[in-house]
Amino acid sequence: MKSIFETAREDDRLSTSVAMLQTGGMAETLRGGGEYTALFPTNEAYSNFSREVLDAITADRDRLTEMIMYHVIQGKLTTHELSRMEAIRTLQGDHLDIAGPPSAIRLNDAGVIQPDVECTNGIYHVIDRVLLPRAVEARVKR
C-alpha cells in the first residue's frame, strides 16, 4: 500500500489533481504521515472551468493551496462515516456540506464516483466536481 499522493498519481483520471497538488505544495503533506481524507476531482471535473479560470487559480499559489486544502480533511473517513455527518471542516478552514447515503453521498455539489481508496496515510474518494471554498468561488466568479 502507498501514500495518498503516490496512489492517486497512478490513476490516470486524477492527473490534473495530482499536478495541482505538486504546484500548490501539498504533495508532501499527502505523501507523509498523519491520517487524511482527500477528495480528488477527476480530470473531467476540471472541464467545467475555462482555461482562464484554471490559469488564474494555478498562477496564484496561495489561492491554489487554499483550493487544494478545501479538498482535504484531517483524519481517515470512509463514505459511511461521512454520511453520518451534516458538514465537516476541511484543512482550508471552510466546511463541506454532506448529504445522502454512503452509496450516493454528496459533498457540496460533488458526487463520489469512487469511494474509500485505502492508503498508508489515510483514504481518498474520487469526486465528479471541483470543490471551491466560498471565498475562492466569489473571486473566480468576479
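(the above was protein one; protein two follows)
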Amino acid sequence: MEQNTDVTATNTPSLQIPKAYLAYVKLLQTISFSLAAREIRKRFFTPIPFPLPKRERPFIEESRRENLTVGDRQITLRTLGNSDKKILFIHGWSGRGSQAYAIAPALVEAGYEVTTITAQAHGDNPGKRTHMLQFTDAILAAAEHVGKVDTLIAHSIGGAAAFNALAGGLDVQKLVILGAPSSILDVIDDFCSRLNLDDRYRQYLAQYLRDNYSPDIEALAPRNLAKKMSVPGLIVHDKQDIDVGFEQAEALHKNWSNSKLILTEGLGHRRILSDEGVVQAIVSFVRS
C-alpha cells in the first residue's frame, strides 16, 4: 500500500445548517422525544436540492441523457464519449452526476466512455427521500445497462454504496473512492453532531437502520467490506474535509490491502472532484 500527500492552497467550507432549523429541532426536543426523532429521521433520509452551477452546464449540454427505472424509482444517466472501455461515476449525498464535469472529459480524452449516475431523489429525479442502499441499486442497474464496467468512481456516500455494489456482485477492474465515509455509525454520529443531538438520537437512528435495513449495519461499512476486497483501489481524501474526516480514508486504506491513498490539503469535500491534480491522479490510476 502506498500513501501520498498532495498539497493545494484553496479550501471549500462545508454547507452550514440554517440556525432556524437548528432552533426548530431544539424546540422539538423540549416538547417530545418522539416528535424530534421523527423529524431527524426524515431529515436523515432527505437530500438537500441545489441549483445547477454554471460550471456543470457544459457537461449537461454535451452528454447524452437517459432515464432509468430502478425498482419504482428513477435515476438519470449521462454519458460522455464513445468507447468499449467504460467508467461509471456516482455522486455523494445532495450531489448530482454532473459533478464529474472535470473528471469525465479528462477520462474521455484518455480513451474512455464515462457514464454518470444521478441517484434517486437527486437532481431533477422525482422523490424527496432516499438512502445509501438505493444508491447501491442505482450503481448495479446502471452497470447492467451500460455493459462491462472498467472502473467505478464514487464520491462521499456514493463511495459507501460502491463497496456494497461490489459486495453485491458488481465486477470492475478498478475502484476510485473520493471523500467517502468508511463507517455507517460514524455517518450517524456526524449527522447528530451537526444537529446538536444527544446519544438518545444516535441510538434511535442506529436502531432504525438495524430494524429496517440490516441487523448489522456496520457489515455494510466500507472499512469492513474492504477486508475482503482484492480489486485495486485509489482513495483520495482532503485533510480539511469537514463533511467526512480524513481519518475515514485512513481506516479504509488500512483494511483495503490493494489500495493507494492520496491525502490532499485545502480542497474540502467537494472541490476534490475538480482539482486538476486529483483529476490527473485518477486518469493515471485508471490507465495504469
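Reviewer note on protein two: Residues 1-14 have pLDDT under 50 and may be disordered.
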